[in-house]
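Holo prediction. Input below; ligand is NDP.
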Amino acid sequence: MTHDKIDFDEFLESLKRRTPGEDAFHQAVSEVVPDLLPIVNDTPQYREAAILDRLTEPDRIISFRVDWRDDDNIVHVNRGYRVQFNSAIGPYKGGLRFQPSVNQSMLKFLGFEQIFKNALTGLPLGGGKGGADFDPSGRSEGEIMRFCQSYMQELHRHIGPDVDIPAGDINVGSREIGWLFGTYRRITNQVEGVLTGKGLSMGGAEIRTEATGYGVVQFLCHMLAEQGDRIDGKTLVISGAGNVATHAAELAIRDGAKVITLSDSNGYIHDRNGLTQEKIDWVKDHKSKSGASLEAYADEFDATWCADAAPWGVPCDVALPCATENELGKDGVNALIDNGCTTIVEGANMPTTAEAKKAIRDADLLFGPGKAANAGGVAVSGLEISQNRQRRTQTRQELADALKDIMQTIHDSCAEFGQSKAGINYTKGANIAGFTKVAEAMHAEGVT
Ligand code: NDP
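Structure of the complex:
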């Protein structure tokens, strides 16, 4: 069967039958596979080796119970996961997310995307993702620490510097990575680079915290340069107020852009005067307090607070969705277009719905997909792995230069593989460039 040319609808139907109810995963696969089919259908050895079927089935999924006690000594039970999706080109690599909405489908979509993203960086990193349906909002430091310790109590069996090297993601920052790493070290008696995003005192890499957001803006600058355009003087609307959003805002401002919004799960702020470094520092500090809402920004800095809404109706040149998946729908895209936006670059993973992507294509907007634009974080994580293995430390400047080089290379690969008469299709370019590397490795290792 796998020797026959593959029909997309049949392929998707079969995937849905095997993985019922995994909507986010189906969405991610649907957005990638159509770009890959012409290559697979033209390459008999890929069909013979069932590359697409194997690429859409994780190597393994680990699911486990996480028990922990709250400050009132009450026992809670959560579910932890690690999806080890594909290690054809290197150890599994991808973040850990702690959020009540975490489930297998979400982590499979993120792990699947991660395969292509990691391949695009040019580093030997496979794709994985993990997390738990734990809600840290309103929890004390002690409660979150105990949760991390309990989570690692099980996870440590499944990871290692040559096996799987997790990092942070939503609600897992360097504080949580520190607690996870400390627990791993105590259980295994090994001081090794088994997690990235660590604090500097634990062997973490300079600029890792900033890398994803900075990389998004660097990618945007390369896209604009390709059009003979520049970021300075542009007005940016950014969603999110976490790691990716605040650091994207930081570099954009430094590069001469005006950033006028940030958002969180309660709403968004519209600051007509534009954010400054001082205001961003305030946001970072404020949002580091568990459960703090961005609403307080409006009083602090004379801005407008819009509750329970996303910032897509605010006039801008460029939009950077940097909060979460499916946060930008078709209506949001149409509002952006009506208000003059010409460019959308994804800072978050799959923040744009399938319908929104169609609206973007129909309107011929310049579009940067997350798997390419937000790869700066995992790229610096890759460099953190190298420095841990070599027991050395690279300077901030060395890492900043390396990040710049990698984002340029990612842009250029996407541009090369996404070139068409109508211009560059960055999504297609990213999908094909990432796939080519992984498929070659999967084919080369054979099938048992
Ligand atoms: P953070 O936890 O630091 O910040 C997430 C932000 O998104 C918060 O402001 C949060 O608001 C907001 N948010 C979460 N859920 C929603 C929602 N349903 N509606 C509106 N806003 C929401 O995460 P990161 O900045 O690290 O990650 C953001 C995105 O970037 C994710 O998609 C992540 O997978 C992706 N990413 C992150 C990388 C990294 O290095 N950190 C690397 C590559 C991708 P609130 O505070 O109210 O919860």
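The first strand starts at residue 60 and ends at 69. That is the main takeaway for now.
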